[in-house]
Protein 1
Amino acid sequence: MLKKCLMVSILGLAFSPLLAQTGSVTGDNENLRDLAVPDNTMTVRTFDNRYQGFKGHPYLFQDWKMGSVITKKGQRIADVNLKYNVHRDELTLQKASGLEVITLFNEQVSAFEIGIKSFKMVGNIEGNHFYEILVSGKSDLLARRQKILRKANYEGVYNAEQPFDLFVKVESEYFLQTNDGELVPLKSTVKSLAAALGVDEKQLKAEIKANRFDIKKEMDLINAVALFVADTP
């Protein structure tokens, strides 16, 4: 009988560490589950090796372009390298040494030229933004250039996965700026354009037809507006 008791005691001692380890594993699993609870103050970092970085760029031109800047005080900074970040609506200047880059406050800039393109700062109820000058005259035809950042997405059910962040150019918005500074939104219709220009709709239609303009295309819109707003000598 004594031998049996000793044997049971020895077996109990042998298995007790195993039982303790089993309890520890269960506790660890519960702790891991706790880390995933939304209310838990700790953060669990996960990594997805499918991510492929960025594609595209946020700029009007990817490379530096020679240009000039006119400040709000009327000062002209000529022959400098510029980059216009369309996504952030920010202008960056590179000093002649090439070693220093400065992002200019929009409030400091009145207008700038970059390459063959010209922009000016315009303020309205949506804030201050840069607009490209397409036609300059009695009224100005302006375009708001924009890019959006489409973030990487792996959860699309119906859409193909996109394992990278992508800068996407979106359709430009067009405006006619009158002499008093008002911005009039333009739609690519004869009615909208005639109302903005303050001309007879039939007259505008005849000019568009005679010149075979398709005002849904930017260059044809530019040419159509130029017929009516260009300064005459």
Note: The chain has a mean pLDDT of 79.
Protein 2
Amino acid sequence: MGERANLLRPPEAAFVSGTAVKVVDRAIDEHVLPKGFYVLDGGRRLTPGGCVMIAFYHAAADTFTPGLRKHIITRFENRLRHVEFEQCKALARQNWTLGERYWSIDLAPFIARTACGYERLREAEAAVSRDEMVMSGADVLRGTRVPVHDIAASAGAGEPIARIRDAYPLLTEHQIQLAFIYATAHPQRGRPRGTALPASTRLVERKRVPRKTAG
């Protein structure tokens, strides 16, 4: 996780809440999140309760107005302020319904979603290691020399998992999924390095053939 215990950087918070980084940043910039659910000093970090709020605010965009969504967040503010990720599963079984004359909401599914996202993130992080003596310190799947961001780039480009496994036959489908999760929550900084192909990959020469024109 990040340098601050139990706080997540925007890419991590985006994965946990099931949204995008720009959604997380907008929630901070547009003051959707109350003070105390994020910190700015030393880099943006979000609390578990902040992740729940973002998950709800984004998912309810087609149902409630921005003003009503902010009002609902305010109503749950005290209950979510000191929530820890490890508590989310148990908290999701509590009563989180809220309603007035013309609307009602149950926050429990968003707490459960956050708990599930956090567990998947932690599993992905546990599946990755970094050693300066292995692939120049790149993040690799534990016990291999396979860089996770190379696998994620292939999956993100739409490469079928079956073809990725053909290139990396020692990897399981689950490892490939974890690599994608890790790379999503921990994107590479700066200019990406060239992708290292497996030793068994054959280079096929391509030639450009001029198109014939009529006449």
Note: The chain has two domains: 10-122, 129-185.
Protein 3
Amino acid sequence: MILQKPMNRRDAMKMTVTGFGIAGAAAVGMRSAWGAAAAGEDLVPAGAKTLRELTTALAKSPRHRDFKAVPMILTSPDQWDAEALDLVLRYRGGPRQLWDNTALNSPWLNLMRNAMNAQIWSFRHPNFLAVSATHGTAHLALYDDFIWRKYLIKFLKGNPSRNLWLTEPPASEESPSTFENPEGVFSPHDNSITVLQRRGLVFLACHNEVWELTMALHRKGINPDHLSHEQMAAQFTNHLIPGAVLTPGIVGTLPELELAGFGYAK
């Protein structure tokens, strides 16, 4: 089963009500959030002028989502979200932290939320920027409903049957004015990609993961439109979630982030 990964230190953490595993994310009463990235109330910290400028610039930067076919190795900046990625690399606020996220069924969202909370309120760094360098099975969370319905439900044998990691729990509707609320928008009850995007976290997507997943789908015969590998990879690229920043490959982008001053976290 694709979701079963060897348990590392992070995976071994107790998964209760925090919403980072499949069972937690499927809690009753959650509402879907398939709309634009950072939909809903702005959760960028007060005083975070530099972070707000980045989120505004990222929202305006173009995303390449009209591909007909893409190659295995991207060789030109117009094949990925070069302008948006450059904005992240040139960010002058801080601190800056990149998270090497590879396991979907792990506490990856919870750990990033904890890092943001401590940086913003404990260490008083409102311009703290967290970036998810997303690949491995975690990358499945960066595809929209179209891809899940057409390919991934069958690929994962219906478990799960939708992208639970985009779902906003009821806690997301709580007022952000009380950040100490143990069941509020900043609490373990509110781990979701959409909420973290509203807080300024950037999710980087991986072309190599797109290529290798579509290769696996081809091998399993999950190809309802009889697309070539290059065409299917383009379709998956075109249906990344709103706000995601496509890179030519995460493992190749990690050194660029570290050279730009991002601290590495796994």
Note: Residues 1-39 have pLDDT under 50 and may be disordered.
Protein 4
Amino acid sequence: MMKMHELNSQKSSPIKRYVKPLLLITILVVALVAHRLGWIDMAAAHAYLETHAGQWWAPLALIVLKTVMYAFALPASTLILLAGSLYSPWVATLITVVGGVIGGLAAYALVRFLSPDFVNQRTGSSGIDLLRRHAGFLELSALRTFPGFPHSMINYSAGALQVGVWVFATSTAIGLTLKGYVYTAAVHNQIQAGSATDRFTWQTLWPLAAWAVLLIVGALLKQAWSPTQETEQPNNAKSYR
């Protein structure tokens, strides 16, 4: 009986292997189509939140909206700008960080649940192992900080590569704190000054790029000082959990 059960599971495994990845792709496609067709009306959401910005629940609504957009890999950069236009830089940054971390963890968990078999089968390949070796705290913090880098790519890649939850969450919080404050302060100050100039010039963004470069340099130095630890780390998914 046991042998028959094992035989049946082996026969069905090729199909089960692709069920979760296909489900993940389906979810993302449906979310993208809904966004493109206007079922998720961001303009209406912006207008509604601007009208009710003084309500106690408005910051919570911004956090929930950002969480949903991050979870399904939808564009959420305008929510940072909206938060900066409605609240002080520190409050707007807090909204950005909380929504970004919760939404990032939701995306991370979704991909980690729906793609473990698909990714684990490729463990041992040079590409997957290279990505895992360079998916540490400093590298992820640098990517979060660098201007214009898509956060959805970080969220989903970290989940697929099974990066540690603590590393992912803390790097997300640090990166979004730095980026969130610079972005929201730029928007807030522009509104306060009544200026119509471009709010995001290199004069505004160079500190983020500099921080990202410093974090990358730190990651490279760390790897150079501990090559033995990097090479001896087992090439399996458990070491990244």
Note: Confidence is low (pLDDT under 50) at residues 1-12, 229-241.
